[in-house]
Amino acid sequence: MQKKVIASPLAPKAVGPYSQAIAAGTTLYVSGQLPIDAATGLMAEGIEAQTQRALENISAILAEAGYALSDVVKTTVLLQDIGDFAAMNGVYATYFTGALPARVCYEVARLPMGARVEIDAVAVKA
């Protein structure tokens, strides 16, 4: 199986030794996305805006690889404060409908750049 690096100009560039995403066969592995606007390099304010930005970044990477949010089968959500769960979940629910992906959500001690949320995804083409 061949793997292919996926990079969207509409999502923040990888800032370390990793790729925005890797396509392997019919599966796409999207690295954790912070709520950074690729055009400005700025981070959104507040958990709702940060969740939206992280999911928009994931959407851009999916589109670059020919996938859509409906192809996502699993996500991981990292929250700086689990108290933000309900607000994050409210925004998250507007992005995923129909057959919802599996998901785990953790509170973590810190996220890069002081972000309140980071989300990764795995998508599969049938």
TrEMBL record:
Identify the InterPro entries for this entry: RidA, RidA_CS, RutC-like_sf, YjgF/YER057c/UK114
Gene3D superfamilies under this entry?
RutC-like
| Name of one Pfam family that matches | Ribonuc_L-PSP
Q: Name one GO molecular function term.
A: deaminase activity
CDD domains reported for this sequence:
YjgF_YER057c_UK114_family
State a GO cellular component annotated for this protein.
Answer: cytosol
Regarding protein family, the annotation reads:
Belongs to the RutC family.
- This chain belongs to the protein called Reactive intermediate/imine deaminase
